[in-house]
User: Fold this.
Amino acid sequence: MLKAVLFDLDGVITDTAKFHFLAWRDLGAELGVTVDEAFNEELKGVSRIDSLERILVFGGLADKYSTAEKEALCTKKNDHYLELIQEMTPADILPGILPLLEELREAGLKAIVTSASKNAPGILELLQVKDYFDGIVDPASVAAGKPAPDIFLAGAELAGAKPAECIGVEDAASGVEAIKAAHIPAIAIGDAEVLAQADRVLADTSDLSLAVLRDTWEKATA
Ligand code: BG6
Ligand code: MG
Assistant:
């Protein structure tokens, strides 16, 4: 039986993915690295420090900065990101998400946030949706970030469910890879080519519903 839904945040619950992109693009420009939308796909779902490392490798700057300098660059990116998201309100919840959270609550399914973002609790507050969730996995508490399965396994545990009793919702290739590595069925939102590993790909969050989640879960676990 499907017992829990494990939600990515950025790009699933709200469109913060575009703000992460803008903040990395501007930091990249300062470092002389062009972060375009195609390369940004490789950053989606990836932790702050791992994203910076990927940008530095991409720009041929892998050994240029000390650990302290990299931390300062991450802080700079995050400060800019926080400026970009400060005006967010409940109107920024993506279509279909609130009705889905209401359906889950009514049906007694658990909803867990499994985001790589350390900003997740603050964003859920801005969106005023924190109460819909039964738990938020602290990304700092897991050994390895996406595409490793750790955060989704921790999410299942927090829900008190087995991985096979959950379904994960993601917009990033690294996230879908992480869900599948945890042996959890995956629904992806976005480009079907980029997200081909998912059990079902939807163009938009407005296509999400408990019926779609159940159907996908049933086919994936049959
Ligand atoms: C993920 C985003 O959800 O969180 C990534 O897709 C981001 O782009 C990562 O780097 C970490 O987020 P934060 O808010 O902790 O920098
Ligand atoms: Mg995401």
User: Anything to note?
Assistant: The first strand starts at residue 4 and ends at 7. The chain has a mean pLDDT of 97. Residues 110 and 159 are 6 Å apart (CA to CA).
